[in-house]
Design goal:
This protein is α/β, with parallel strands linked by helices and about 800 residues long. The chain has a domain of about 90 residues: formyl-coa transferase, domain 3. It contains 31 helices and 24 strands. The strands form six sheets. It has a seven-stranded mixed sheet, sandwiched between helices. A seven-stranded mixed sheet has the order 12-18-17-16-13-14-15, with helices on both faces. Helix 6 runs parallel beside helix 21, helix 15 crosses helix 21 and helix 20 crosses helix 22. GO terms for molecular function: CoA-transferase activity.
Length: about 800
């Protein structure tokens, strides 16, 4: 293995919980020296088990997230320990901070205070709502943040006869960690100190909803206004659960043919494919029930219909694809099973995981080294950073990215690069435009209907638009010439597509030896599932995310949202490591960022709990392991669609919050009951608590419930319709939405990035998403083509501007 790309990069970890731990795990995988500062009692994550297992010391999840890190102990009541931590910060390149420990909560170690004392340091703060604004000090949990984000009802998940349901498994924590890692590495590219202010609410908006504000404002309707089961979705076969989905009209037609119902195919139907599938739900479920999982999957793969087994902590390690790819590793200290990294680099420069540290294992080492001003052994020299930034450009200025991606996962990755200054050339063809142009439901009779997709607009601002028909030799030749001018080539097709084009990493390197090729196939470049089409829902099922989402007495629900944006932000992390490797060595890098590998990492707790403790985690509706009570409760409001379907989320995460809840609702008997004074006691009495709390909420408006509980210190949220995200005052304060002008569509709010950089930019969207092929002529002219040559390409339909 070569030198890891982050060798010599020292990160001080002042965080608690999963988000900061996962962020710094990604740094450690990349070779960084991560020094975790813990209070004398240790990070609470050391004692955590989602199943409630006796961890016997360090919990398995901690041992996974802390691989390759170092641990020092500091007591902030001791002045010498304050000086010790400050010396660590003075020698570091970055610090990751979140509330929750006596060290991080000490005034000297608030993010702004650290940034003032150490202006050359990158300070990344992870908080529920951001470091300032009207909600900055309000309590929140994963569950209440999902409610505020609109993610609980965002894509119509669930069934109309039950409450909506959250995405299980603390997904938002991992999303925040992945964004924090990417933001920190982005700040590092500028070579100056930076205060990075990351909002977990905003990461959930980007990870659990699908540009709902832009969609609603542009088209005048929500993406979905009711909960509906995805059909077939996750269904029960003869011998287990299988996930089958239709993301396009062609896939619906193929499903009809696969099930022997060619008569259902109606290309002129006024109904959407979702509506057509729901009409045939009974017959589809009966067909599935009469087949085995393997029979269904073999057929679906042959028809190129997205499909996957429904994985969980018990069955996932035996699935043939993961066995073939070596997707799981043995924890180097405690010998349980954990996922491998969320991306693979060639050359292989990621660090193999090393054992997690025991509490305070390295305190003496670092005290000795900091007293002498030395770095710890086995790590490189500190990266120098300037304390005075002066005039700064955007982090990715000068980086050219040839963007061959489509739909959501790939464009979400390249979009962040475009928002932060890269020149991103989005390649489409008139025969095969980006798939998100086609899902707005605009009739083809409307002028320029392909330019009116809010999803395409939300994912592609700041990019340049180029059309090339890659099925023609001339189109491929021009693509090759563009590759020679590009730093990065990104794509997210199934491997067979680029196999057909002859465009693998070797081909890219022959055109530009130092190019980075980012490949984002659904299931990876090898293994038996490599050529299976992958949409978010099958990735979620195959990784175990779906297993924890829904009610215990029903089939799991597909989150239908996490798989794509989660893949995008992890791919960006892999790409940033590759860029650092190229900066150090001049070598090109292949980044394989399979969607499913990223999903396995954010669902890691399931396989860890099962292999470490024999505990199979189960879905439990809106109950969860981190709070009790935790549930959705119906308020007295009538929603905007005229339904009694307005909910609030309440999650009591601490015993103090329980006392506060009792006081707020006048439940003096609860407050006096010792059986309810602990998490375990409340968990055992959850049904009784739900009944009474539900009665209390049913008599009140949602806003009144929030106003009663939240200022008192109880985590609570309205379950927002996602297209109403702009109504949240915290988002308005942070300027999360920016209006974007467009030559075809009205000016529309667009979500931005979930972090603020102290060195800017102050605004992220600088130009609208490109019209189809908008910049083709100028880009080809840059390659030296004459006007006559360009006109000939248009006449031959190698390029164009209309579908």
């Amino acid at each position: 293995m070569g030198t890891p790309p982050l060798d010599g990069f020292r990160v001080v970890d002042l965080s608690t919980g999963i988000a900061g731990a996962y962020c710094t795990k990604l740094f450690a995988d990349g070779g960084a020296e991560v020094v975790k500062v813990e209070p004398p009692e240790g990070d609470p994550l050391r004692r955590w088990s989602a199943s409630g297992a006796d961890t016997g010391g360090d919990g398995a999840l901690f041992a996974y997230l802390a691989c390759s890190k170092r641990s020092v102990v500091a007591d902030p009541s001791d002045a010498s320990d304050i000086a010790f931590v400050d010396d660590l910060l003075a020698s570091a390149d970055a610090v990751v901070w979140s509330r929750g420990s006596v060290v991080a909560d000490h005034p000297d170690f608030a993010p702004a205070a650290i940034h003032r004392r150490h202006p050359g340091l990158i300070v990344t703060a992870i908080t529920p709502f951001g470091l300032d604004g009207p909600w900055t000090d309000r309590p929140a949990t994963e569950f209440t943040l999902q409610a505020w984000s609109g993610g609980i009802v965002g894509l119509g998940r669930g069934a109309p006869d039950r409450a909506p349901v959250y995405v299980g498994g603390q997904i938002g924590e991992y999303l925040a960690g992945a964004y924090a890692s990417a933001a920190t590495l982005t700040g590092r590219r500028r070579g100056v100190g930076e205060l990075i202010d990351l909002s977990m609410l905003e990461t959930q908006i980007l990870g659990l909803t699908y540009y709902p504000v832009t969609y609603h404002r542009m088209l005048g309707r929500p993406w979905r206004d009711a909960r509906k089961l995805t059909v077939p979705g996750i269904a029960r076969a003869k011998d287990g659960l299988v996930d089958i989905g239709c993301g396009t009209a062609q896939q619906w037609f193929d499903l009809c043919a696969m099930t022997g119902h060619d008569d259902w195919i109606d290309e002129d139907s006024p109904l959407s494919i979702t509506e057509q599938a729901n009409e045939k739900a009974g017959e589809l479920y009966a067909w599935v029930a009469d087949q085995t999982v393997d029979e269904i999957r073999d057929l679906a793969s042959a028809f190129r219909i997205p499909n996957a087994p429904v994985a969980n902590g018990r069955n996932i390690t035996a699935l043939d694809h993961y066995v073939a790819r070596g997707s799981f590793l043995t924890n180097p200290r405690d010998r349980f099973t954990q996922p491998g990294p969320p991306y693979r680099l060639d050359p292989a420069v990621l660090r193999a995981p090393q054992p997690a540290p025991r509490l305070g294992e390295h305190t003496a080492l670092y005290r000795r080294n900091e007293q002498t001003g030395q770095k710890s052994p086995h790590f490189g020299a500190q990266t120098s950073v300037s304390a005075q930034p002066g005039e700064l450009g955007l982090p990715f200025e000068g980086l050219r990215v040839l963007d061959l991606t489509t739909f959501w996962a790939g464009p979400s990755c390249t979009h962040i690069l475009a928002l932060l200054g890269a020149e991103v050339i989005h390649v489409e063809s008139t025969r095969r435009p980006d798939g998100t142009r086609l899902i707005a439901g605009i009739p083809a009779s409307e002028p320029q209907w392909w330019e009116r997709s809010p999803i395409f607009s939300g994912l592609n601002t700041n990019k340049l638009g180029l059309t090339l028909d890659l099925h023609t030799s001339r189109g491929r030749e021009l693509l090759n010439r563009l590759i020679a001018t590009s730093d990065v080539v990104a794509e997210n097709f199934t491997p067979r597509v680029l196999d057909h084009l002859g465009l693998d990493f070797a081909a890219v390197q022959s055109l530009r030896p130092d190019a980075i090729m980012l490949r984002m196939p659904g299931f990876g470049l090898d293994g038996p599932w490599r050529d299976n089409p992958a949409f978010a829902y099958v990735i979620e099922a195959a990784a175990g995310i779906s297993w924890l989402t829904g009610y215990p007495d029903r089939n799991p629900y597909e989150p239908y949202s996490v798989g794509d944006p989660n893949a995008g932000i992890h791919a960006l992390n892999g790409l940033l490591l590759a860029l650092e490797h190229r900066r150090r060595t001049g070598e090109g890098v292949l980044v394989e960022a399979a969607m499913v590998d990223a999903a396995l990492n954010v669902a890691a707790e399931q396989v860890i709990e099962y292999s470490a403790y024999g505990a199979l985690l189960q879905r439990a509706g809106n109950l969860g392991p981190t709070a009790a009570p935790q549930n959705l409760y119906l308020s007295s409001d009538i929603d905007e669609f005229g339904r009694a379907d307005s909910w609030v989320a309440i999650a009591v995460a601490t015993d103090t919050q329980w006392t506060t809840l009792c006081d707020a609702i006048g439940a003096t008997d609860w407050a006096a009951d010792p059986a309810l004074a602990t998490h375990d006691g409340r968990r055992a009495a959850h049904a009784r608590i739900d009944e009474r709390l539900g009665q209390w909420c049913a008599q009140r408006r949602a806003d009144d419930i929030v106003e009663c509980l939240w200022p008192a210190g109880v985590p609570v949220a309205k379950v927002m319709q996602p297209h109403r995200q702009t109504e949240l005052p915290q988002l308005a304060h942070r300027g999360f939405f920016e209006d974007v002008e467009h030559p075809v569509n009205p000016a529309t709010p667009h979500s931005s990035l979930p972090f603020r950089l102290s060195n800017g930019p102050r605004r992220f969207h600088r130009r609208p998403a490109p019209l189809l092929g908008e910049h083709t002529e100028e880009l080809l002219a840059e390659l030296g083509l004459s006007a006559d040559e360009i006109a000939g390409l248009a006449a031959d339909k190698v390029i164009g501007h209309t579908v």
